[in-house]
Amino acid sequence: QEVEVYPGDAKPVKKVFSKQEDSGFNHNIWSLGEHNFHPHGDAPLHYQPNQTNQSNSNKSFDKFGIDYFFNSALIIDLSEKGEIREGIKYLAKIKREDLEPFKEKLSKKTAIIIRTGYDRWLEANKKHTKTPELTKEAAEYLAQFSNLRVIGTDSLTIGNLLAHLHLSKMLIVESLVNLYSIPV
Q1: pLDDT digit string, tens, across residues 120-142
Q2: Beta-carbon contacts of residue 7 (< 8 Å; ≥ 6 apart)
Q3: In which residue ranges of the chain is pLDDT below 70?
Q4: Pairing of strands 88-90, 111-115
Q5: DSSP 8
Q6: Which CA distances in Å does 110 have to 16, 19, 80, 116?
């Protein structure tokens, strides 16, 4: 089955390395892009590789240390605010006003997970046409919370490069699936 990938990214390519009749085993070599994986993480080095003037801006995942990945998280489920597309309801634009009601809870957590409903779209392997993302104002709003270390979403991306730069102090985890099974 063809796997859908982020628009413009390369799809996985399988090349036969050895066949059973030749070596006794079937072996393949897979060429994968970094967005072929669900979930996918963006460390700051991923989207601003030449920056070295900010504390976290030039870090890759291995530079954060294992303790950075254990957090008290808040799940914000915005899936009911969305529109139905091809039988799946999800929110395509996450606005500041969608996040403001959670201000007090956000100030007490070190991680946030935003569920738009797109997790079901990913699981259905549907073609990506309208991927959910944070608006500029929503990214700016979340950037104000100095306690936040990690942001996760069920979307393929949190948004454009500007959204990533606003949230550059955080690790970003995208394409989370099965979020609907976590109680909120």
Answers
A1: 999 998 988 899 999 999 999 99
A2: 128, 131
A3: 1, 32-38, 42-59, 61
A4: unpaired
A5: T
A6: 44, 49, 25, 20
Nearest-CA neighbor of 119 among 50, 38, 5? 38
Q: Are 38 and 9 in contact (CB under 8 A)?
A: no
C-alpha span between 162 and 23 (Å, rounded): 51
Position 160 scores a pLDDT of 85
- Beta carbons of 133 and 113 less than 8 angstroms apart: no
Spatial contact of 79 and 117, defined as CB atoms under 8 Å apart: yes
Burial class (CB in 10 A: 0-12, 13-18, 19+), 66: exposed
Cα 93 from Cα 81, distance rounded (Å): 10
Distances in whole angstroms, Cα of residue 19 to Cα of each of 14, 27, 32, 46, 177? 13, 7, 21, 37, 34
State how far the Cα of 157 lies from the Cα of 166, in Å rounded to an integer.
14
Length of the chain: 184
